[in-house]
């Protein structure tokens, strides 16, 4: 008997990108302006890179006066980006707990997804308890399998925390001495994700460094640690 359900096209497998962004008061001015610009460029590139079989879904968690999930995982081409403002303190621990909950929830982060890329950006030190949520994020459950990237903005950033966040990952800690370098970092994030999108195995993570131009990024095998 004819069954039309057998001919339904499968949904594209997503690569989730979760951005954890410090929007404390110290990010006011040029840093937050540059961050907004970099995010718009990233989303535009992600939208153009989408394919029938693979797509990029993005969510942004900001932490400043409060921890806010600006929107759930959403297909890049469907995001109506709204400018982010800077105000408040640096509750990074709470942001990590929210991110952990999102990754572990299979309704939020579907089981069919490829390994998420999680990006942490900060220009200061956490003002809440961060050690326990950070250890939990990088050591336990699905979040431990994520590809993680981090950027320290200025000399006031707590590199001890950011280096802990990227333990076990192939990426170095990226640093920005000035606001203009934020865009350079997000271009590397963008290239990392789009390289995965176009590879035969999107669970393989590209290796980035300051020494290699973006065009010379090489992929590394991580078949033993799929999402």
Walk me through this protein's architecture.
It is a single chain. The protein is α/β, with parallel strands linked by helices. 29% of the residues lie in helices and 22% in strands. α1 packs parallel to α5 and α2 runs parallel beside α3. The longest helix is centred in the N-terminal third of the chain and has 20 residues. It is globular and about 65 Å long.
Give the arrangement of secondary structure elements:
Layout: E1 13-22, H1 30-49, E2 54-63, E3 67-75, H2 92-104, E4 117-122, H3 131-139, E5 147-153, H4 159-165, E6 174-176, H5 181-197, E7 205-207, E8 218-220
Parallel strand pairs: 1-2, 1-4, 4-5, 5-6
Antiparallel strand pairs: 2-3, 7-8
Helix pairs in contact: 1-5, 2-3
Outline:
The chain has helices at residues 30-49, 92-104, 131-139, 159-165, 181-197; strands at 13-22, 54-63, 67-75, 117-122, 147-153, 174-176, 205-207, 218-220. The protein is an alpha/beta fold and 227 residues long. The chain has a single domain (12-220), classed as Rossmann fold.
């Amino acid at each position: 008997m004819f069954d039309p359900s057998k001919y339904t096209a499968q949904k594209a497998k997503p690569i989730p990108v979760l951005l954890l962004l410090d929007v404390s008061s110290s990010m006011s001015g040029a840093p937050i302006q540059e961050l907004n610009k970099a995010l718009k460029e990233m989303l535009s590139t992600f939208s153009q890179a989408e394919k029938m079989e693979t797509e990029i879904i993005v969510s942004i968690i900001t932490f400043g006066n409060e921890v806010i999930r600006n929107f759930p995982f959403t297909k890049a081409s469907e995001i109506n980006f709204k400018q982010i403002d800077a105000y408040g303190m640096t509750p990074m621990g709470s942001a990590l707990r929210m991110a952990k909950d999102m990754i572990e929830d299979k309704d939020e982060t579907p089981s069919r997804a490829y390994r998420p890329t999680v990006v942490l950006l900060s220009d200061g030190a956490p003002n809440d308890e961060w050690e326990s949520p950070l250890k939990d994020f990088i050591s336990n459950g699905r979040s431990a399998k994520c590809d993680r990237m981090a950027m320290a903005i200025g000399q006031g950033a707590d590199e001890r925390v950011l280096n802990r966040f990227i333990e076990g990952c192939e990426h170095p800690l990226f640093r920005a001495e000035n606001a203009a370098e934020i865009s350079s970092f997000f271009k590397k994030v963008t290239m990392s994700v789009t390289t995965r999108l176009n590879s035969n195995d999107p669970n393989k993570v590209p290796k980035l460094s300051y020494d290699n131009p973006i065009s010379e990024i090489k992929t590394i095998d991580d078949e033993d640690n799929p999402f």
